[in-house]
Amino acid sequence: MVISTNKRAYFDYEILETYEAGIELLGFEVKAIKSGRINLAGSYATLKNNELWLLNADIPPYQPNNTPSEYDSKRTRKLLLKRSEIEKIAGSIGKGALPRSSARGRMLSGLTLVPLKVYTKARRIKIEIGLGKSKKARDKREAIKKREVVREMRHTLRQ
User: Fold this and answer.
1) What is the CATH classification number for the domain harbouring 100?
2) Are 45 and 51 in contact (CB under 8 A)?
3) What predicted TM-score, i.e. pTM, was given to this entire model?
4) pLDDT tens across 11-65, in order?
5) Is residue 14 a contact partner of residue 131, using CB atoms and an 8 Å limit?
6) Which of 16, 50, 59, 90 is the most buried (most CB within 10 A)?
């Protein structure tokens, strides 16, 4: 069941690959996420010491009165992936290894890891992260135009 989706990531980035990761959480954060209280806007993942970390994901407390006073809702959280997946991501974003060429022959550099959605799977909370390449302003304008055309076509078909 999908809990939250980062719609902005699909608009700002061209998603090349996706990965499913677990996320290291505190107990009250799990309750907050299951009740739908998570904001992925502006968050991203980074690689530090051969581990993936989620930054700037906002998880407000489930019960503010029962939350520790030193709790930071935008704290850095560890993402849990297999070692082989982490190595593949490190090679793609160019940290820890030389950038590899893609199937199309261009270098995979300047890529960002962005969280796409948070969902539950077998009572566990999972996060889908995508390896994305930033879109240019003209690409975004084309996406807006395409969306407007589809909207107008639906509107004319209803009448």
Assistant:
1) 2.40.280.10
2) no
3) 0.77
4) 888 899 999 999 999 888 999 999 989 999 889 999 999 899 999 999 998 888 8
5) no
6) 59
